[in-house]
Amino acid sequence: MTEPDDTIPGQPPPHARPPEPPAARPPAQGSPFWHMVKVLLVRAFHSDLEPVEVLPDEVGPLSRDNVHGGSEPLRRVLLWRRAALLVAFLFQIPPLIVRIINAGVALGENGQDIAAGLEFFLVLLELGVLVAIYAAMRRWASWHRSRRVLLWTWAASFLAPFLFSLVPLRSVYAPNADGPQGLIFGAFLGVAVFIQLAPKVLALIPGILRAAIIAKAAFPMSSMPGRVIQIAAPFDSLLMFVVLILPYQMTGGGWMVPAILLLTLAPIFFYVGGKRLAKPHTLELALKDIGWTRRGAIAGNLLGGLCLVVGLMVTVGSVEFNGSHLIGFGDIFLAVFTLIAEIFRLEVIGIDIMLGAMVGLHEGRRARAADVDAAEAAYERELDVLAAARRADIDRSAQSAPKPPPQPPGGGPS
Predict the structure, then answer these.
(1) Looking at CB atoms within 10 Å, which of 136, 224, 260, 406 has the fewest?
(2) Contact predicate 289/277, CB 8 Å
(3) What's the CA gap between 121 and 156, in Å, rounded?
(4) Mean pLDDT throughout 219-224?
């Protein structure tokens, strides 16, 4: 006798084993190193923190409970941090090579100990930055150690070029240059120092803005990232204008006109997006607003940056002094790579600080709520004591009040 068939068409049998989930697609064939680099680069340039492929060397650190404490957003942030630090590391290598070449040229041609010493100081500075980024990237799973290394080395590398700019370079490179020629040579060196400092300054606020975007993607219910974007975006426009006004005035227009317009107006997308993101969101809505904000800002920055590079190369690059170009291709190359490396490094530092601030505010709200609860409990106890004292006072007053004299028999009111 056959068993009755109680299956439903299109559905699995009631007691059947559930279907196996689809197997993960194996990684593309090729070198494991280049596959790792490809995965990390794709991860670094995506700010939505979508679930991504976890590399084999990341499985072990992430499996430890003390790494992310079971927090899925923090787990995704840690994976993204590693990728962003790799980008900063890769873009920091070319500036180091250029610095080494410049130091060798200064040592061979100038024959001046002070000038060569300054160049080698810059080499050591770039090398220190590279080592710090590598150390933070190696310790990516140890969040506290990684962010501490990044923060202190960034502070040192940020301040060192400004201290270097206080050195009177005209007295070092041309101590005998006087009159108009000395002034021209001083302006020449001033532009060189400006190109060295500009990436450090220009990367500051964009790094903070990108960090706020990452924080919002990780914790869409938080309103802090949106408020940070609203505050920082106008300062980004102002900073861009102040820094770019020097090359704009030097060139007298041309390609610098669209460059300064695009780069100073691009942060408007962040400001408008920040108003939307400055409220609790669902993840889907947050990613939608983040995508719109980033696309507009990236388009403006890319077009403006392209116009800036072309304008500097065409106009300012044609100016020479004693056979040397005021701005050469190597200077532009160095500035662009330094800017990108600084943005990604500041992006990581920014999200470290922002997540710490979010945790601090959360703990502060809890402490204040506990204090309020304790204060309310004390207030309730005081009211209970006051009510008891009031009732006792009423009872005493009732007992001590004079009693009316007794009336004689039959002496009722007539």
Answers:
(1) 406
(2) yes
(3) 13
(4) 89
pLDDT band with cut points at 50, 70 and 90 for residue 364: confident
pLDDT in tens, 175-197: 666 667 667 777 777 777 787 78
In angstroms, rounded to a whole number, what is the distance separating the alpha carbons of residues 289 and 292?
Answer: 5
Half-sphere exposure for 177 (CA within 13 Å, toward CB): 19
Q: 207, 342 in Cβ contact below 8 A?
A: yes
Contacts of 272 (CB under 8 A, 6+ apart): 293
Contact 68, 148 (CB under 8 A): no
Bridge partners of 320, per DSSP, are: 325
Provide mean pLDDT across the span 52-57: 78
- CA 136 to CA 122: how far, in whole Å? 21
Going by C-alpha positions, the residue among 184, 185, 157 that lies closest to residue 169 is 185
Length of the chain: 414
Q: What is the 3-state secondary structure (H, E, C) of 294-310?
A: HHHHHHHHHHHHHHHHH
Neighbour count for residue 27 (Cβ, 10 Å): 14
Residue 322 pLDDT class (50, 70, 90 cuts):
low
Query: What are the structure tokens assigned to 128, written together?
Result: 């220190």
Strand spans (E) along 311-410: 320-321, 324-325
Which residues share a beta bridge with 325? Answer: 320
Distance in angstroms (rounded) separating the CA atoms of residues 374 and 383: 14
Q: Which amino acid is at 359?
A: V
Pull the structure tokens for residue 221. 């219910």
Backbone angles phi, psi at 345, to 5 degrees: -65, -45
- Domain positions in the chain are 73-368
Non-local CB neighbours of 316 within 8 Å, separated by 6+ positions: 191, 247, 250, 251, 326, 327
Ranges 56-60, 99-103, 126-130, most confident: 126-130
Cα–Cα dist 313/254, whole Å: 12
For residue 106, the 8-state DSSP code is I
d(CA 205, CA 128): 23
All residues at 6 or more sequence positions from 209 whose CB lies less than 8 Å from its CB, including other chains: 229, 232, 233, 236, 267, 270, 297
Closest C-alpha to 345, from 99, 98, 165, 95: 95
Would you give the distance in Å from CA 365 to the centre of its chain? 24
In degrees and rounded to multiples of 5, residue 325 shows phi and psi of: -75, 140
Question: How many contiguous H segments (helices) and E segments (strands) does the chain have?
Answer: 14, 2
> How far from the centroid of its chain's Cα atoms is residue 31's Cα?
32
Question: What are residue 319's phi and psi, to 5 degrees?
Answer: -80, 130
